[in-house]
Design a protein that fits this description.
By secondary structure, the protein is α/β, with parallel strands linked by helices. Strand 12, helix 5 and strand 13 form a beta-alpha-beta unit. The strands form two sheets. Strands 6-5-4-3-2-1-14 form a seven-stranded mixed β-sheet. Helix 4 packs parallel to helix 5. The protein is built from five helices and 14 strands.
Length: 237
């Protein structure tokens, strides 16, 4: 099976890596960008990775877990909150992780990276530290930055070289295009995929501004910008 990444809008992804299905921040039901063919009851999931506790990132984790019984990867505060919910399937495994830590999987390795962001859970309780994920497989290195502002230590993530970096560019709650350009210059990934923008008016980015941002990145770095519409996929070599 070919490794691939499917964008489901906002910050949500369905990855197929080494024959395993991995969901990142599975925000489906209330996601206005989510493709109509994707539902919590039908999407496959061997793993669910949660960057932080906000409802547009935890999303439909509980409902999906009832159907698929995946391995959930999250910080301890989110793990405890999920396992305390009435509809949490008790035979579902949660792997605790913290920033800087990593765990082996049957598709590669997951490392949690820093993110500058809040992490309140849907009921207002504390969700621990927000983070991102660096996924290393036999063929690719993928960096999902999560909801984050720019920070200088991003430069240390570039070893091994990153094939795809998924950066938020919506501004207001995360980096905007200007800081995402600086992040690209720090990390020098082969490819950039912008996320967490145009979901709602508060994080909308004008098309002309996006074109200018793409031109800046591709003229000042060796990175290529890949704009994905919700439902689009990337096949990994």
């Amino acid at each position: 099976m070919t490794d691939q990444i499917r964008y489901l809008g906002h910050s949500t992804f369905h990855l197929t890596l080494q024959g395993k299905h991995i969901l990142i921040d599975p925000f489906l039901t209330d996601n206005p960008q989510c493709p109509s063919d994707v539902t919590p009851a039908t999407i496959p999931a061997d793993y669910i990775l949660i960057t932080h506790g906000h409802s547009d990132h935890i999303g439909d984790t509980l409902e999906i877990a009832q159907h698929t019984h995946p391995i959930i990867v999250a910080v301890p505060e989110i793990a405890r909150w999920l396992s305390s919910q009435k509809n949490f399937p008790q035979n579902t495994l949660i792997e605790h992780i913290q920033i800087g830590g990593s765990i082996p999987t049957d598709f590669g390795r997951i490392k949690m990276t820093p993110a500058l962001h809040g992490s309140a859970l849907p009921d207002g309780s504390y969700g621990g530290l927000a983070g991102g994920f660096l996924l290393t497989t036999p063929s690719s290195t993928l960096y999902f930055a999560g909801d984050t502002g720019l920070y200088a230590e991003m430069q240390f993530l570039a070893n091994p070289p990153i094939d795809y970096a998924f950066f938020p560019i919506g501004d207001r709650y995360t980096m905007g295009p200007t800081d995402a350009l600086t992040a690209t210059q720090l990390i020098q990934p082969k490819n950039i995929v912008p996320i967490h923008y145009n979901t709602w008016p508060l994080i909308a980015q004008a098309q002309q501004a996006l074109q200018s941002w793409q031109a800046q990145i591709e003229s000042t770095t060796n990175s290529n910008v890949n704009f994905l519409a919700p439902g689009d996929s990337i096949k990994l070599k």
